[in-house]
Amino acid sequence: MSLPADPRARRTFGDGAGAPGDLAVSPYRADRDRIVSSPFFARLGGVTQVVSPGGSGLLVHNRLTHSLKVAQVGRAIAERLLADDSTRDLLEKLGGCDPDVVEAAALAHDLGHPPFGHLGEQVLDRLARQRLGLPDGFEGNAQSYRIVTSTEIRGAATIGLNLTAAVRAAILKYPWTRATYPDPHPRYLDPPPRGATAPGDDPDSGSAKFGAYTTEIDDLRQARAPFAGRIPDWQQTVEASIMDTADDIAYAIHDVEDFYRVGVLQQGSVASELMAWQRETAELSGLTERALDAQERRPGSSIERLRRQLHRKDGWISNEAAFADAVEQVRAELVDGLLAAPFDGSIEAEQYVAGFSARWTRRLVDAIEVVAQPAVRSGYVLLGSAQWHEVQVLKFIHRRFVLERPDLALHQRGQARLLEALVDALLAWILDPEEETRLPRRLHDLVELAEAELPEDTPDRLSMARGRAIIDFVASLTDGQAVALLDALSGRSGQLWTDAFVL
Fold first, then answer.
1. Do 189 and 225 have their domain in common?
2. Phi, psi torsion values for 264, nearest 5 degrees
């Protein structure tokens, strides 16, 4: 059979025909179905968004419900943009836009997130680089791409999900590897794109955020080939840009909603911070950095630091008047609105939360713009200036009043220790010559896959393959599976047969 005429619809392996399990005619709709049928997608229901699902019940989002909302918002954005004739022409010139592609990419974008969310991502990256000797380390976005191109199984081979080029390219929020592709690497741009700078603990290691490991670089090139000459090698495709923007919108809104529900976001503390800054803007803006740091606990000082950070890093869009307007908009809607009465689980309270989310989602989706020449730190699809500032303030509230809480820090320190112990225990098991035949079959398979990916002259090839296999194995667990597996490996569990994990 011949290849599909549209290069965007070409798959990594085989011709344009669908796989036996495909029910949809559209290749992009078939991709969407392949993703939601994957066990990697199902496991997201047990993976942390901010707070572990095991400790929060149904009140807060997990990675699965987050991905579904990103898909909903992303598809709405794509459909609105395509309804405008002038915008549609620009989208086609930049490489094309299909709502099914956006939806599929949104559903896949978090497949690689490990147990315990971003905390787990940071811990596994450090362990991968410093303990297991993997130059690429670990990155959740790159792990998502690895899953859809390598470690997920279709039929009898590890060919990933064999997705179309357009969907694979749309998953690439950061379309570069850690250090080598493209050349010159985007971390050398001035300013570099979002995520392209090096992590603070290892400035020579390459970008902190990246979309693919070196082992998937050929697939990355193939996925990006239909867009060559239309957009820079380091820039997101239009569909990736829509997915990324939808991710920001969903994150900003549902995290505020979540922590209002569980009683963490309190009107008094949020009001104090926002209103103090509004009253004392002139005084706070006149403080030196040292003086501002010395008044860290002063209400209003944290959001003043946000204002300065945005001005410093995002001068292409940051605006003093728009920032002040955003603070007022969030104060009016959040402080005087949603937070005015504690959530009590009543029908009225549920309706108010739903109304808040709906208003904000519509407000942000309706403010989406497409630009032909975006700033380096932006994509082709972005929020209007006013709404961009509002999202920054909403994300600030989540960071300041949720992520910086000591009780969450205590919880996360324990999760970090758990992941460290789990990686150490698996490494000891895989290195024990008497246990080789009793290793989990999945771990054996992952070692063989990782070894086959590496050139034969790779120094310490088997050791690196084992390290990557351990990272792949741990990253595929839910929060609960990680806890149960460590309990078993450390002898704390007396239960021999359990459905918490399968070996």
1. yes
2. -80, -45
Measured CA to CA in angstroms, residue 21 lies from 38, 84, 104, 141, 154 at distances of: 12, 35, 17, 26, 10
Among the three residues 191, 208, 239, which one is the final residue of a domain in this structure?
239
What element of type H or E holds 108? Answer: helix 99-108
The conformation of residue 199, written as its DSSP 8-state character, comes to P
Of 404, 429, 446, the domain-final residue: 404
Peptide bond into 184 cis (omega under 30): yes
The pLDDT score that the predictor gives to residue 500 is 56
**Same domain (yes/no): 286, 382:** yes
Tens of pLDDT, residue by residue over 218-254, are 999 999 999 999 999 999 999 999 999 999 999 999 8
pLDDT on residue 320: 96
Residues 278 and 284: beta-carbon distance below 8 Å:
no
- Per-residue model confidence (pLDDT) at position 54: 52
Q: Output the pLDDT for position 115.
A: 94
Residue type at 179 in one-letter notation: A
Q: How far apart are CA 173 and CA 243, in angstroms?
A: 8
Q: How many domains does the chain have?
A: 2
Helices within 176-319 (DSSP H only): 217-224, 238-261, 267-279, 281-285, 289-294, 301-313
Angle at 35 between CA 32 and CA 40, to 5 degrees: 160
- Rounded to whole angstroms, the maximal C-alpha distance in the chain is 71
Are 93 and 111 within 8 A, CB to CB?
no
Q: Determine, yes or no, domain membership for 296.
A: yes
Q: What residue ranges of the chain have pLDDT lower than 50?
A: 1, 55-57, 153-157
Residues whose CB is less than 8 angstroms from the CB of residue 481 and which lie 6 or more positions away in sequence, other chains included: 46, 115, 500, 501
CB-based contacts of 108: which residues, under 8 Å, 6+ apart?
A: 35, 41, 144, 148, 167, 171
> pLDDT tens-digit profile of 144-203?
999 999 865 444 445 689 999 999 999 999 999 999 999 999 999 999 999 999 887 788
The verdict on 41 and 179 lying in the same domain is yes
User: Do 235 and 274 share a domain, yes or no?
Assistant: no
Determine the structural domain holding residue 82 and report its residue range: 7-239
Residue 198 sits at φ, ψ, to 5 deg, of -80, 155
**What is the pLDDT, as a whole number, of residue 199?**
81
Is residue 213 included in any domain, yes or no? Answer: yes
